[in-house]
Amino acid sequence: MKPNYFLLTVFLILTSPIYGQTSRQVSGVVKDSTGAAIPMATIKLLSVTDSSTIIANTEGRFIFSSITATQFTLVFSSLGYLPLTRQYTLITGSRTVELDPVILKSDTIALKGVIVTNVPVRIKEDTIEYDALAYKTRLGATLEDMLKKLPGLEVAKDGSISAQGKQVSKVQLNGKDFVSGDIKSLTRNLPSDLVHSVQVIDDYGEQAKLTGIKNGESQKILNISIRKDKNHGYFVQGRIGGGFDAFPPTKAADRDGRYATSASFFNFQDKRQITVTGEINNTNTSLFDINGGRKGPDPFGDKQNGIVTTRAVGLNYRDDWGKKLTVYGSYSLAGNLVFTNSSMIRDNLSVQSPSNQKLASTRNDHNVNHQINFNIEYRPDTMNFFKIIPVFSYGGVRSDENFRGLVQAGNSSRTLISEYSSYIYAKSSTPNFGMNVLYNHKFYKRGRNFNALLTGGRGTNEQFENPTYHYLVGRTGAPINQLINSNSCKDSISTSFSYLEPLGKRSYFEFRYNYHNALTTAMRMTDTV
Questions:
Q1: Phi, psi at residue 165, to the nearest 5°?
Q2: What pLDDT, on the 0 to 100 scale, is given for residue 494?
Q3: Are 410 and 387 a contacting pair, CB within 8 Å?
């Protein structure tokens, strides 16, 4: 493939004021005519730059976390009330705006007999549950297509999900952790017709589940319940597509095709869950995280463009090995090849020393990432609980780049100042491993609890770079040929112990001890040839 890209950038060194959009947090409360809060009211935001829909909480409060427009319209609606539309203009420069309470009037209609067959949304303490049957999707749709229809949920282009303005950090299947690190590996592969319900849960962590005491800030997680009639058997889904670039190159020989194919396998058997997903494409998309990253100098800065060819496969497994032991884990292998062809022209219009610079670059990046997560849960009896979590990841990248540079004086004569070519070879690897061990003991007295956590790990980063320069005209202050080796390592260990003693129904005493130790070493060696 020989894609041609041309990037024209002009830098003006002038003194001028710069203005930017201010992002504001806008909040308020929805009430009825008696002053009582209206829970689960729907609020829709309409503006030139923003458009989203959220649901008020159980106290009628709502929050739009990031509004850039100064003029916008909010549409309020709730079952049993007349809808209300209000327009707002923000004059204050504050980043936090509290709106006046919004009052909705009752909408009373005499109806004949009504049979309620489905409740689309239910609220259960810290959980909002959506009935999947109430949100129709097309044949062959995925879970992500359904999530886009749920009020209060927002799905970004990269597959990330937000619920009531907070990022969703984890996903569960039938109340059990789906251990893959990528949420979209499930949401973009699981068929929507297998889903019975979707729950948005405020999760306070493993210790809160064991002790029943919620501390700190909660995280949003999704729990996907599979239909009972679909929770036994095998399900396979595949997709394939192809085409050409919308803007073909000038040369017919450079007309490269685009392809995208993916496949997913699901096996549900009561408490056993097995999923396998894979993909191959050259459309700059991926169902997995590829954490290799790019290393080495880059004259154009950190790029996200280019032609990306991706290959990835992932496996998830969960099952009960007897009545006391549960194991679950995941493995993913993802890699991509990024080819980038870039050109840039930079004009410096300074009165004292005008100049013109031209850069042309071709670059190849090979990225690979391995990720292994495993969990072992053991309950010898109802009073004791052990959990062991070994983790391992490896990210690697290899890149090579050729670029040419030309610098001319910015006057009419265009005097040649320097001309050079360069080749940069770089590679890096980031192996990381660690282990977490959790023990919890419940005493016979309700609420009395002992908890111990031990965490240890090592993370390393090894980089090698070999930049070489060849100057045809002019000279550089930098060495012509360098060998650069960089190594860093971080070892850490931490432990915590806590003891809880209930003091009545609404209070408790907690004794906690925390210890953390980390050692970081770094080394950089540069040789000039």
A1: 85, 0
A2: 96
A3: no
What DSSP designation does 127 have?
E
DSSP code, position 23: P
Structure-derived torsion over alpha carbons of residues 90, 92, 97, 102, reported in degrees to the nearest 10: -50
Distance from the first to the final alpha carbon of the chain: 35
The Cβ of residue 329 has, within 10 Å, a number of other Cβ atoms equal to 18
The H or E element spanning position 208 is helix 206-211
Kindly report the number of other CB atoms within 10 A of residue 355's CB atom.
Answer: 16
Q: Please name which of 53, 56, 64 lies closest in space to residue 30, comparing C-alpha atoms.
A: 56
Distance CA 512, CA 495 (A): 11
Dihedral class, residue 210 (left if φ above 0, else alpha if ψ from -120 to 50, else beta): alpha
CB of 331 closer than 8 Å to CB of 374: no
For every residue of 44-55, DSSP letters joined together read EEE-SS-EEEEE
Which amino acid is it at 273? Q
Question: Which residues, at least 6 apart from 42, have a Cβ–Cβ distance to it below 8 Å?
Answer: 53, 54, 55, 56, 76, 77, 78, 151
What is the maximum span of the chain, computed from C-alpha positions, in angstroms? 91
Exposure of 219 in the CB half-sphere (CA atoms within 13 A): 12
Domains of the chain by start residue, with CATH: 24-104 (2.60.40.10), 121-230 (2.170.130.10), 270-528 (no CATH)
The pLDDT of residue 455 is: 95
Do 386 and 422 contact (CB within 8 A), yes or no?
Answer: no
123-154 pLDDT tens trace? 877 888 888 888 888 888 888 888 888 888 88
Q: What is the pLDDT of residue 300?
A: 32
**CA-closest candidate to residue 119, choices 135, 131, 136, 128:** 131
What digits encode the pLDDT tens for the residues 76-127?
999 889 999 998 887 766 788 888 899 998 876 655 665 555 567 788 778 8
Phi then psi for 241, rounded to 5 degrees? Answer: -155, 160
Confidence of residue 503 (pLDDT cuts 50, 70, 90): confident
pTM of the model: 0.65
In sequence order, the 6+-apart residues with CB closer than 8 A to the CB of 29 are 37, 56, 59, 60, 61, 62, 101, 102
Are the beta carbons of 221 and 168 closer than 8 angstroms?
A: yes
502 in Cβ contact with 475 (< 8 Å): no
Burial of 268 (0-12, 13-18, 19+ CB in 10 A): buried
| Distance (Å, whole) CA 99 – CA 253 | 60
**Which residues are 26's β-sheet partners?**
64, 97
Q: Are 350 and 331 in contact (CB under 8 A)?
A: no
Give backbone dihedrals phi and psi of 144, rounded to 5 degrees, phi first: -60, -40
What letter does residue 149 receive in the DSSP assignment? T
Q: What is the pLDDT of residue 434?
A: 93
Q: Are strands 161-163 and 166-173 parallel, antiparallel or unpaired?
A: antiparallel
The answer to whether the beta carbons of residues 147 and 161 sit under 8 Å apart is yes
Residue identified by tokens 């009628």 is: 60
Taking a C-beta distance cutoff of 8 angstroms, is the pair 501, 450 a contact?
no
